[in-house]
């Protein structure tokens, strides 16, 4: 039974159809990345999952159960981590980490206890009583991730969680995420612009077509691919990245295809998975 299943999802802003016939699954314990050109509708898709937007068509299922499209975010089985850390500057780190629980109605004391229990395993011990401005960008993203997972939701929706970080911190946090994911085994849908990151972190990478073309293709990443120090040395990694770049070019429409505008370049829908 899928942790997350989208069937024929569509979305539009007025006359502008952004998503059409988007269907895919995330299995329990699987990390699935979604890549796509800017404007292809990745953030819109997350907004449909969190309940910020209503789909114009299609169904969302969790564990085989149809989600009520009117259900508010707090009643959904998804925890969402936005790209920016959005920590409240006037709240100490421990209280920031528990805020998602508090919003869900958990008393502050219990929220502190539950969030506090994760500070050690998440490499944040000693930061509990600091303020966000006293932490580095990487540490703040850890807090933001902690705040997301402590809600105990079975599916994590991560919107470019490392997009704003420098390359070294990003590498460090990718390893960190994989390590703690090993211990917890969440089901994850990850949005990223970074193809290398998608390959490194995922079991499967989906390519979202522009112009409401649905899922244009996917690339599976073997579990045997090393994700730590060996990642960059394994020849399969650049091969997978190259396949994804090719899919992305084709899925971004003829004007962005290397064949140039007006050519009969391959369109996303015709790609063989
Ligand atoms: N609130 C809105 N009202 C009208 N149009 C919108 C709104 N939000 C997004 N759009 C349009 O929907 C399309 C998809 O936007 P979306 O932000 O989902 O793309 P994206 O793939 O996440 O892009 P990026 O990678 O640049 O973040 C774009 O054409 C955008 O202009």
Q: Please write the CATH class name.
A: Alpha Beta
Bound molecules: adenosine-5'-triphosphate
**Proportion in β-strands:** 15-25%
Helix content: 25-40%
Q: In angstroms, what is the radius of gyration?
A: 19 Å
Within CATH, the superfamily carries the name: P-loop containing nucleotide triphosphate hydrolases
- Judged by helices, strands and strand pairing, the structural class is alpha/beta
Number of strands: 10
Q: Count the helices. How many? A: 8
How is the CATH topology named?
A: Rossmann fold
Region (Disordered): 252-273
Keywords: ATP-binding, Nucleotide-binding, Transport
GO molecular function, one term: ATP binding
Domain ABC transporter: 4-235
Description:
With 273 residues, the chain is α/β, with parallel strands linked by helices. It has a single domain (4-77, 153-270), classed as P-loop containing nucleotide triphosphate hydrolases (Rossmann fold, 3-Layer(aba) Sandwich), CATH 3.40.50. The protein has 8 helices and 10 strands. It has helices spanning 42-50, 93-97, 99-103, 108-116, 137-149, 167-184, 195-201, 236-251, and strands at 4-13, 16-26, 31-36, 57-62, 65-66, 78-81, 155-159, 187-191, 204-208, 215-220. Strands 6-7-8-3-9-10 form a 6-stranded mixed β-sheet, sandwiched between helices. The protein has a 4-stranded antiparallel β-sheet with strand order 2-1-4-5, with helices on one face. A hairpin with a 2-residue loop joins strand 1 and strand 2 (16-26). Helix 7 (195-201) packs across helix 8 (236-251). The longest helix is centred in the middle third of the chain and has 18 residues, at 167-184. It is globular, with a radius of gyration of 19 Å. The relative contact order is 0.16. The model is unreliable at 256-273 (pLDDT under 50). The structure holds adenosine-5'-triphosphate. The site of adenosine-5'-triphosphate (ATP) has 11 residues, from strand 2 and helix 1.
């Amino acid at each position: 039974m899928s942790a997350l299943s989208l069937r024929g999802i569509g979305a539009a802003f007025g006359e502008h159809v952004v998503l059409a016939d988007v269907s895919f699954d995330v299995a329990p314990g699987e990390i699935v990345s979604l890549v796509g050109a800017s404007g292809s509708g990745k953030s819109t898709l997350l907004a449909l999952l969190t309940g910020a937007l209503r789909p114009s068509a299609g169904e969302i299922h969790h564990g085989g159960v149809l989600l009520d499209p009117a259900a508010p975010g707090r009643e959904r089985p998804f925890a969402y981590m936005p790209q920016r850390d959005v920590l409240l500057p006037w709240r100490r780190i421990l209280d920031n980490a528990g805020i998602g629980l508090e919003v869900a109605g958990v008393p502050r004391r219990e929220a502190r206890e539950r969030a506090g229990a994760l500070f050690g395993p998440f490499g944040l011990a000693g930061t509990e009583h600091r303020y966000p401005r006293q932490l580095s960008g990487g540490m703040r993203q850890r807090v933001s991730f902690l705040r997301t997972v402590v809600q105990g939701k079975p599916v994590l929706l991560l919107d470019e969680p490392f997009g704003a970080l420098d390359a070294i911190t990003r590498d460090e946090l990718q390893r960190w995420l994989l390590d703690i994911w090993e211990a917890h085994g969440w089901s994850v849908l990850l949005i990223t612009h970074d193809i290398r990151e998608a390959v490194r972190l995922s079991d499967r990478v989906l390519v979202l077509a522009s112009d409401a073309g649905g899922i244009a293709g996917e690339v599976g990443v073997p579990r045997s691919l090393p994700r730590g120090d060996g990642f960059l040395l394994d020849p399969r990694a650049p091969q997978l990245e190259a396949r994804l770049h090719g899919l992305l070019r084709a899925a971004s429409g003829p004007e962005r295809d290397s064949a140039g505008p007006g050519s009969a370049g391959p369109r996303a829908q015709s790609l063989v998975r």
